[in-house]
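Q: Hi! First time doing this. I have a protein sequence and I read that you can turn it into a structure. Is that right? Here it is:
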Amino acid sequence: MDISGRIPRPGQVLAGRYRLQEIIARGGMAEVWDAVDVLLARPVAVKMPLARLEGQEIFRQRFQREAIAAASLTHPNVVAIYDTGVDASHSFIVMERVRGRSLLQVLADGGALSAPRSVAMAVQVATALDFAHRAGVIHRDVKPANILLTEDDSVKVTDFGIAKAARDEDLTLSGVTLGTARYLAPEQVEGKPVDRRCDIYSLGVVIFEMLCGRTPFDADTDLALAVKHVWAEPPAPTTIVPGIPLWLEAVVLRALAKSPDDRYPTAADLAKELRNGEPALSGLITAERPAETAYQRLSRPARASATVTLNRPGWPPSERGGSPGDHGRSPSDRRHGPSDRLQDPSARDSGPSQRQRGANRPNTRRLVPAVAAVVLVAAIIAAVVLVLHARPLTAPAPGASATAPAVSDIRVIGATAFDPMGDGMEDDADLAKLYDGNPATSWHTDQYATQDFGHLKQGVGFVLELSSGQRLGHLTLVTSTPGWDAKAYVSGAPKTDLAAWGSPAAAATNVSGRVSVDLRGRSGAAVLVWITRLGPGRQVSVGEARLTG
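A: Yes, that's right. Below is the predicted 3D structure, encoded as structure tokens:
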């Protein structure tokens, strides 16, 4: 078929009004031209299907649907549609000309963005999507190439080329999945009906990429990549870029939930969650400790002159320069040295477990459905996004009289291993050593292939059981293993899966020596210590776990 007559050229005037100048973007189905509206003497962008698709009726229909759907979206964060029509063999849509770059170009040039900048952009995208969703329009192809940044870093969402009005008949070809594999929601991959929550998932992928400089999944083929959205668990952003605030990590992971029901119900809810956390991002850490977050400070024992709080989970300053085009990279070091130690000199690792786990060990029984881990994310949000007014871990000045209420030990009556994503066991024979009063004896995890549990699970831990529900003050851990991460949960009774524990009461990173975390007065009869990252030796040893009221 001769398509030469369908190929537009510079200088060509469409409908006697729009003069084409040069191609500024090209996608899988269409290309966008820089153009001039000669009638109104203003710059515009003109979008036309690729010549090879122009003759296919289904693409013409889809193209016209774009104009109809998008023209109704008048919003500061949506690229405006001015006109549409057909000139000879050329279907076209005339759009607002945005001076700036796409997020795709920004990420390609500068890598990961800072948390404040990522959140600011994500809020604008979510706001635009919410506006479209309330108008009955689902984008279905949210990705960096479709997010345009103006010269002042304002965001405009574009390209509703595969969008549709939710109430309209689906034009998708049988057997063809619309969208980009790297950003597809699981339900899109599976060919299930989609709603606005598929856009929330795709935006979650975009936020992940802004923070980490890469998407959650990668593969050699689009098919393999798409399948990962259905079955593979996304890595925690903090395992890629240390220092990302835990509340922000939780927001991203909830947006990336496999089940639409476990994501944010609306884009407005996602935007609200991000806005709620923005004030915390203003508390940037000083240059003396550029990569240390408030959560990392929690892992250091309190000093006489230091106060450690959890109410401002900061972000290390990573932007260089002040112009919108400057793109600093986030720190790349996973850890920044062990925290100051108050370690019992007799406390030593008792050695690897008899049941060592390597990369070659079959792992099928350790893989569990993604839902349990994803549901946890929804619970984390409430505790981590608004970790406000946490009581500081302070020590009185020498000679000062103590005015704080008396602290009493809470008796632990038992301990059990917590390994819901594995075989349910973790050095069970030594669990009593966690509360025997002797830090020289220890319980330890199995030894894994990597610090991330050989990518077989999200974590392991242990549960401390009490005789009855009690109001809890602090959890103190003594360890001979440096550089591991954990979260603490409180419940009225031991639970068998992670989601049932609800939101974490506290979190600590880069744990070493002796660390005390504030459980914020939560009441319960069971405390879960959930280890989310192992030490450099690929296991963790805990000599003592003490609870006080």
